[in-house]
Design brief:
Elements (H helix, E strand, L loop, with lengths): L10 H6 L4 E5 L5 E4 L1 H8 L4 H4 L13 E5 L20
Antiparallel strand pairs: 1-2, 1-3
The chain binds zinc ion (ZN).
Length: 89
């Protein structure tokens, strides 16, 4: 069994880094990018695991939603960023 070494990402964390939220529907693979700031205003500093329950897929109505930071849209091309990495300035 692998250890859970990744801390849950929170909305405030995304807003601080000007990252958007990448939303994926597990049922039909529909996906889009949404801004994190309005969600932060609405839900506060909630972890993504809690926020994902607020989403529903528009095309298929599915609620199996997967969220992650939109690294590529923000120009973070390394793909994998650990919590120990320094932030790009
Ligand atoms: Zn869907």
């Amino acid at each position: 069994m692998r250890k859970a070494s990744v801390e849950p990402v929170r909305l405030g964390w995304l807003v601080e880094r000007r990252l958007n939220l990448w939303v994926w529907c597990e049922s039909c693979s529909h996906h889009k990018v949404v801004a994190a700031a309005p969600l932060y205003k609405k839900y506060g500093d909630a972890p993504l695991s809690a926020v994902k329950h607020k989403f529903r897929c528009a095309p298929c109505g599915g609620r199996e939603i997967f969220l992650r930071p939109d690294w590529h849209g923000a120009g973070w091309t390394r793909g994998v960023v650990s919590k120990h990495d320094k932030l790009p300035e």
